[in-house]
Amino acid sequence: MHPEIEERELAEPYLGGLLASLGLGVHFSRAEKDTLFYRDDTGREVPVLDLVGGYGSTIIGHNNPDIVAYAKELLDHGVPVHAQFSKHPYANELAQKVNSIIRRELGTPDAYSAIFANSGAEAVEIAMKHAEFDRVAKLARLAEDIERNIEKARVAVAGGAEVVGGESYEHLGADAEGNRGTAEGRPGSALTDVIATIRSVNGERMRAAPVFLAPEGSFHGKLVGSVQLTHNVGFRTPFASLAAQCRFVPLHEPDALAKTIESERRTLLDLAVEGDTVRVVERDLPVIAAFVLEPVQGEAGIRPFDRETAERVQQACAAADCPIIVDEVQSGMGRTGAFFASSHIGLQGDYYTLAKSLGGGIAKAAMTLVRDSRYREEFELVHSSTFAKDAFSTLIAGRTVDLLEAEDGRVYRMAAERGDRLIRMLRKLQDEFRTVIKDVRGRGLMIGLELHDQSGSTSQVIAEQSRAGLLGYVLAGYLLRVHALRILPTASATNTLRLEPSVHITDAETARLESGLRALLVALRDQNGAVLLPTDPAGESGA
Ligand code: F0G
Hints:
alpha/beta; Aspartate Aminotransferase, domain 1; about 20% strand; four-stranded mixed beta sheet; binds ligand F0G
């Protein structure tokens, strides 16, 4: 290799430097259950308790032995990983398994068809694309309907009916200015003018981009489309011109969703024959492609929605015929004590997106489920991906679902029980460190520990890092270096530390976590920033 190249860091070089400066530039070389191992300078293998769990991808632990054995078996048997455009019975089996869980947990008789993907953001974008596909098809049907009504109006006027502009027509904006006032008095030509206006106004309105709605704080991925559903301004706004826009709704305000839906209401013009008059009327134009939400918001700082909010969402969306996309990429697959976190709050989606733990911690598997009543088969001919639905990841996902469902849902019970223990321990710390811990939230093994704002700390380090929004990462570096604990803040709320271990986390590990956190909380309470920083400022020599 060219020496100049050999010396340079070329794989996301900026991030590498940032991690090193935070004391997070550690290379883990082995993993099992909730432990990641790295080798220190002396070559000794150091175990780190991992509470990040691949950001929630390892509900059954790192390198789960059943999944590893199954993966080896698949490779040993020469299962064809790539066989696109052929029959994939295992994909159907996976879809059937997930459907039977939907039936059990959400109590719906509806079936959901599955489209496969490689990542969470891709699963979300499939849902976005499908919702838009459906919306565009509805627009086409509306346009055909209006053309039929125009023909009926022509027949009526030829038979002597009178054209009345009607309120909708009279109140048209500047786009119909030129034609206004010609509607009445001169039946034949009036109808021609009215039709021209209707077609031009409708054409323009139908070309308007769709709008997505999501709760404030949402995180749905970072691809071109999904990043527009991600509330975080830094992630989203540089790319705003590339995709359809989202309006973010403060869901804690009871009327916010219904009001937002109402404010996005748009209409098309149509003609209605009533006796011997032809009147211009308005028809609802579907502008909102979908409402998207995470049942437990992850990146916003682990914030579960409650049943009352779910009911309001369900009602507002049903009234507007607005599909609901339930993003279970992070909250699903048992993490909250049920396969679907939405099942705890009775929220039923038209779409579900799954990824992360679906791959059992080994494969990159993701899927989007679409309720039959909204499903458009033609979508399958306009959407595909080389890697999606491949035998390896789909079979691994199927086996993962079997493991989750085994022994009457033992994994779900473990997630709930282990999560309760963790939350109890954290609440105890909260009682002890009231000035430092603001809140402990979560469900099952999706837990957030929110710290009070530390920007007023008398420790310069703590105050400065807090103001820069980096304190959560500095604390992560400290916990890794000093306590061999891996904990990271949530991406859009860096004052919240996330805990998403696997169901295998033991009492001894919980006790280790408690003692590391206690030391951290003492440092913050006593405003002792010095202990939080690495003595080796490059932080590269391991934790
Ligand atoms: N939806 C949710 C709810 C997520 O939490 C994520 C990712 C995605 C979609 C996108 O999935 O990364 O596979 O494309 N959350 C990561 C996290 C970034 O930090 O938890 P992806």
